[in-house]
Amino acid sequence: MESKEVLLVNCVGEYIVISIQEFNALLTNPFAIHSDTFKLLKCKNFFTDYDLELAIEMLATKLRTRKAFLRNFTSLHMVVLTAHCNGRCDYCHASSSDVAKGPLSQNMRPDVADAVVDMIFMSPSQYIKIEFQGGEPLINWEVLVRIVHRAKKINKTANKKLEFVVCTNMTLLDYDKVKFLMKEGIQISTSLDGPKELHDLHRKMRDGSSSYDKFIENLSIVCRVMEAESVSPLLTITRDHLKRLPEVIDEYIRLGFKGIFLRSLNPYGFAREDLAALGYSMEEFIEAYKEGFDYILQKNRNGVHFVEYFATLILSRILTPFSTGFVDLQFPAGAGISGVIYDYDGCVYPSDEARMLARTGDKKFLLGNVIDNSYEEIFEGNKLKSIISMSCAEVMPGCTSCVYQAYCGSDPVRNYVESGDVMGFRPSSDFCKKNMGIIDFLFKYILENNEQVMDIFWSWITGRSLEDVRL
Ligand code: SF4
């Protein structure tokens, strides 16, 4: 966009770019109803000069579509099966504890697991995703199996759309476990930080072995038994990755993965302790992101279908009227109302980050415990209501007047960690800096309107091949 142009976005995310002269003319003469600009703005529901009620009804319908995630209430239920791990990654957000030291006192007990499943099925949502987390959740394999069986049994009468994901470093997988995951339809979310040297640099095993070698060995078992799409890796970008994202992307493509999520380091757990060695400024991240993104775009131009997932989420928010289900890109925040996490001891937190914060001793976001509290006390209590009421863009200073409000979201826990205040302070917020920087960057591509690039964007959004999109 030229600096002499103005981007206008309304509350339902429709946008238009007009010249500064047109913008000034509208301000000084808003009744220039015969101008082309006015007609365009009218089409996109910025203005109306006829039936006001009808215009409001149309806007309301569009807003309902964008906020459809509110209808479902909590659908993502993360269950921490253990706080122990056989790895000791430098940036571990969950501050995992050693598996070799003493009894596994931080494993979820069977009775707690049963209470967690019972509470999950109290959610009014018709769609339930249970995501197993840790530590390394495979350490508590028996409880994982127990939860899957109990949830499926309850679901025979509850009749919800039920899905499972296990977030694992894959080092403890074996053929029998993979067969169970396949039989029960459990997806694998894992971690891959690039080629061997880069992956092993911060993803360390407590016994000193290479986490990459074990990952590759077990990936081959998984690929023999399950469909390739059942595995999706996550990248954690440290200071050492900033200049090497093309190498990481090449490794993902080499191993057959279809996309990557270029995400910045979160300031929780061990990552927070080691921030000086692992971290970087948000400006540095955005520069690295742009380089990685352009590299991916070039791959797509060369015929390799490979997706950048964060951009895809934002592009969906800009180019379609739908919500994405991604809890960090929605107002109000998804904390508790879209996703929730049950710690190994039954404590319930509105987000994974809140649980990580609690591991460092700050239990500000603790909602209750599945053993001691009822569903109503946890999910309808004042604490969750207060968190949610402070995560609506309409009341958040800075976001209220931001042009990107319709595409962005909020993270009350991150706000609290960054500024000591749940509502946060936008001028110094890294969350805001990142979203604003990346939305700015993507808007440049959108407004250039290059046919090939837009086809690539639509192939990412719709999950279809480029050929399909072109047809
Ligand atoms: S970019 Fe920043 S100010 Fe704008 S809506 Fe997002 S968080 Fe709020």
From TrEMBL:
Any one GO molecular-function label of the UniProt entry: metal ion binding
Pfam families attached to this UniProt entry: Radical_SAM (PF04055)
Keyword entries, A-Z: Iron, Iron-sulfur, Metal-binding, S-adenosyl-L-methionine
InterPro entries documented for this protein: Aldolase_TIM (IPR013785), rSAM (IPR007197), rSAM_paired_HxsB (IPR024023), rSAM_sf (IPR058240), Sulphatase_maturase_rSAM (IPR023867)
PROSITE patterns, sorted: RADICAL_SAM
Segments forming domain Radical SAM core: 70-308
Record protein name field: His-Xaa-Ser repeat-associated upstream radical SAM protein
